[in-house]
């Protein structure tokens, strides 16, 4: 039995959850033939969930994430990718 204290990083788990939701929503939009970038942009700027398809429960998933958190995660990922180049 391991008696060492385990560090719980809730921010990392939330970031991972948001990233997973974005990927699932993106895939659902692509599968339905939509432009995922345009649809996600429309949702983020307006807050109107009708920009997101209900296919594969994508609309329900995206509603679980605050739009500000979505923007933060997208920006964080973009800056990480840019830094690597």
Notes on the structure:
It is built from 4 helices and no strands. The protein is mainly alpha-helical and 85 residues long. It has one domain. α1 (10-31) crosses α2 and α1 crosses α4 (67-84). The relative contact order is 0.14.
Please write out the topology.
Blueprint: H1 10-31, H2 36-46, H3 58-63, H4 67-84
Percent of residues in helices: 55-70%
How far apart lie the N and C ends? 44 Å
Q: Find the structural class using helix and strand composition.
A: mainly alpha
Radius of gyration: 15 Å
Identify the notable features of this structure and list them briefly:
globular; mainly alpha; 0% strand; single chain; 85 residues
What's a quick, concise take on this entry?
The protein is mainly alpha-helical. It contains four helices and no strands. α1 (10-31) packs across α2 and α1 (10-31) packs across α4 (67-84).
């Amino acid at each position: 039995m391991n008696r060492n204290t385990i560090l719980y990083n809730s921010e990392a788990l939330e970031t991972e959850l948001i990233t997973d939701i974005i990927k699932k929503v993106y895939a659902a939009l692509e599968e339905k033939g939509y432009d995922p970038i345009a649809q996600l942009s429309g949702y983020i700027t307006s807050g109107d969930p009708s920009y997101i398809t209900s296919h594969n429960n994508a609309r329900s998933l995206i509603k679980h994430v605050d739009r500000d958190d979505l923007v933060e995660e997208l920006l964080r990922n973009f800056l990480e990718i840019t830094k690597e180049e």
